[in-house]
Amino acid sequence: MKKEHGMGNEHGLKNEHGFSYETDDDIRIHDLNDLDYEMQQKAWGSQAEKMPDGRRQKTGTAGKEAYRPGRRKTGRKQTPESRITIKNRRRRKRRAVFSVCVCLLMLTAVAGCVVLAMENRHLHEEVQVAMAYVDEVNSITTYTEEEVQKMTADAAAEAAEKSSMEKEKEILDDIRTRMESGDGTAPMLRAIYKNELVVADDGRYYFFPIVDTLKRHSYQADYFQMNEDEILEYWVDGNVVSKKGIDVSRYQGDINWKKVAADGIEYAFIRLGIRGASEGKLAMDAEYEDNIEGALKNDIEVGVYFFTQALTKEEAVEEAEFVLEHLEGYDVTYPVVLDVEEVTTKDPRTEDMTKQERTDVCIAFCERIKAAGYTPMIYGNLKTFLLMVDMEQLEEYEKWFAFYQTPLYFPYEFSIWQYTSTGSVDGIKGDVDMNVSMKDWNHG
């Protein structure tokens, strides 16, 4: 290689042993000479190790140097490696790096295969689960809306039939029990028709739906308890809040009111008088004065009642005036009552009265009593309040309800319950009507 433009190696090129040459070709020629020399040395050394006389010839550097032809000495320090050796080393390094990279790629590929295999297995499991769900769904029977409605109706009918059969059995068992115990037909019907009021009259039974237009009482049926003396009491929060009372007339004869008071009677309704059922004349009760005076003398509070047979509002007012006349001079703190009952005598004068006419009589009497400053009240039983009068027109007046069975069988508002006609009180001979009052009338 020649120098151009003053550039190049000042001392020429060098081979791996540090010798200088003009061109690359000179270096290649010299390296080939070295290779030839080395081969000859190996051949010579193997043949010359032994001399004809059996002695081993010494070989060394000096001999080798004397043999190598064309070797030029420059006097410079020799280098251990040639450029070809350097290139070979670099090539080997590159191959090593390449091999490492290939190995890493292979490891990465293997790792990827493992990950893919795991994912594939997971996907396979999910597919299996999905297929199982599909199989399950396919095994479920589906129905149209019409089929569902029919199935629902059939199920409801079956349940109703079953319930009806159970209810029928319950009713029949209850009827048998009541018949064996001696109860009448009316109590059985009342137990069965719980949402209606059953009234028996002249061999017939009337059913009245319980309506929401009438005021209801707030009493709890189980709060009414009969004590050991067969006295009905009303209990609230462990205390008796009711009042024990009686109602009397001439049928009780002479009464020892001192003994009556000692027996715990707190109030008494005294019959003041009646109107005759046939002729319609007004009459005082024969024991009225003795009874009201005897009760008041023994600190028993009193109210009075009048048995009506009025046909018109005018006769009702006449009855009220008669009562007021005979109340003068007495401290009456309990209500003044109109007794509205059906009489059992032959051909009573009130036999053909309508429901409205009886209602008008009640209103006329109560209004006159209220105007006089007393508390008016209407006495009656189930037949009175459901068949004979219109309760909606009489709601503002107090009610005294007669019913001789327990539990209580009347949903509408009332203040006093006459619960028996066969009570027993010291100081009175024979039976007497017993009452429980949920109001303390003397204290409002």
Descriptive notes:
The protein is of the alpha/beta class and 444 residues long. The protein is built from ten helices and 16 strands. The protein has helices at residues 24-48, 61-67, 83-139, 145-181, 185-192, 257-262, 288-297, 313-327, 355-371, 382-388, and strands at 13-14, 20-21, 196-201, 204-209, 224-226, 232-236, 239-240, 243-248, 267-275, 282-284, 301-307, 336-339, 376-380, 398-402, 416-423, 432-437. Strands 8-9-11-12-13-14-15-16 form an eight-stranded mixed β-barrel, surrounded by four helices. Strand 6 and strand 7 form a beta hairpin. The protein is elongated, with a radius of gyration of 66 Å.
* Beginning-to-end CA distance, first to last residue: 145 Å
What's the gyration radius in Å? 66 Å
| Tally of DSSP helical segments | 10
Bulk shape? elongated
Low-confidence stretches: 1-17, 19-37, 46-78
The sequence of SSEs as H and E is EEHHHHHEEEEEEHEEHEHEHEHEEE
Largest sheet: 8 strands, mixed, barrel
Number of domains: 3
CATH class (first level) name of the largest domain: Alpha Beta
CATH superfamily of the largest domain: Glycosidases
Helix content: 40-55%
Could you please say which CATH topology of the largest domain applies here?
TIM Barrel
Judging by the overall fold, what is the CATH architecture of the largest domain? Alpha-Beta Barrel
Strand content: 15-25%
Average pLDDT figure: 81
Broad structural category: alpha/beta
Q: Biggest sheet, strands in spatial order?
A: 8-9-11-12-13-14-15-16
Query: Could you tell me the number of beta strands?
Result: 16
